C-alpha cells in the first residue's frame, strides 16, 4: 500500500523523509544500513545496498526429471540467480545428465560441484558486461538466416540445409534466455538498468521484440521440418511465389528491427509504419498462393499451406516489432 510522507528540512539545507517501518523491517533495513537512490525521470527509487556480490538460490529437484527438470534449471537462470544449488535425497544419473544438458544450453552456466545429494551450478559471466542490444541483434541475424535457409531448403530439396536450420533454433533460444535474464534483472534493480546504460522501458521493448524473433525462428524450424516431409520439390510457380513471400516477410522483420534500433524517432516512425503497411500486402499475397495450391493433391497442398502460414506469421511478428518501435517513439507522458 502506498504511503505519503512529508519532506522536512534539517540543518537548514538538507531535505529528509522517513521510510515506512514495515518496508524497512521486510528488507532488513535498520539504523546504520546503507541505501542507494536511483533517479528515474521524476521518480527516485530507493534500494537497500547488499554486500553479497552473487545471488544464490536453492531448488529441491526430487521427483523432477526430463523436460520438467530442464525447465526448472532454466527458470532459476532467467530469474537471475548466479549460484544455483539443486538438491534431493539422491540425485539420479538421469537427473545429472539433464542438469548438464540444461547448463550447456544456457550462456555462462557451468557445473561447479556434484555430490550424491546436490549439484551446484554457477553463472561465470558478469551480467554488467552483457549487452541486451547485441543479444537481440544477434537473434535478428540468426532468425533471418534461418528463415531464408528454410525456404532455400524447401526450394532445392536440400535435407542437410533443413537439418542445419533446425539445429540453429537452439542458438536463438539460448540468446532469448540471456535477454530474459537481463530484462528481469532490470525489473528487480534500477542499478541493473543503469549499468546497461538503457532505460527500463527500452529493455522491455527489447525483451518483447526478442520474443517475436524467437517465434520467427520457431516458424523457420517448422518450415524446415515440413520441407523434409515433402517427397518432391513443389511446382516452379509455387516455389517462386514462396520466395517472393519470404522476401516480403524478411523486409518487414528487417524494417521493424531497424525501427526499434533507430536513433531518431522520425526514422523509427517511418520505418515502422512502412513495415506495418506491408503486412497487409503480405496477407493478400498469402491468399493468392493458397489459390495456387488448390490444383495440387490434398496432402502436398496441406503441407505447403502450412509453410505459407508460417511465412505470413513471421511477417506478423515483424509487424509486432514495428508496433513496439512506434510505441517507443511516441512522446513520453
Q: What do these coordinates show?
A:
This protein is of the alpha+beta class. It has three domains: 8-48; 56-127, TusA-like domain (Translation Initiation Factor IF3), CATH 3.30.110.40; 128-329, Phosphate transport system protein phou homolog 2, domain 2 (Methane Monooxygenase Hydroxylase, Chain G, domain 1), CATH 1.20.58.220. It is built from ten helices and eight strands. The chain has helices at residues 21-26, 66-79, 93-104, 132-156, 159-188, 190-196, 200-229, 236-261, 265-293, 298-329; strands at 8-10, 14-16, 35-40, 43-48, 56-60, 83-87, 109-114, 118-123. A hairpin with a 3-residue loop joins strand 1 and strand 2. The model has no long low-confidence stretch (mean pLDDT 87). InterPro entries: PhoU (IPR028366), PhoU-like_sf (IPR038078), PhoU_dom (IPR026022), SpoVT-AbrB_dom (IPR007159). Residues 9-54 form the SpoVT-AbrB domain. This is Phosphate uptake regulator. One of its GO terms (molecular function) is DNA binding.
Secondary structure layout plus pairing:
Blueprint: E1 8-10, E2 14-16, H1 21-26, E3 35-40, E4 43-48, E5 56-60, H2 66-79, E6 83-87, H3 93-104, E7 109-114, E8 118-123, H4 132-156, H5 159-188, H6 190-196, H7 200-229, H8 236-261, H9 265-293, H10 298-329
Parallel strand pairs: 5-6
Antiparallel strand pairs: 1-2, 3-4, 6-8, 7-8
Q: Largest sheet at a glance?
A: 4 strands, mixed
Strand order of the largest sheet: 5-6-8-7
Total number of helices: 10
The CATH class name of the largest domain reads: Mainly Alpha
Q: Flag low-confidence runs.
A: none
| SSE string, helices as H and strands as E | EEHEEEHEHEEHHHHHHH
**Rg to the nearest angstrom?**
25 Å
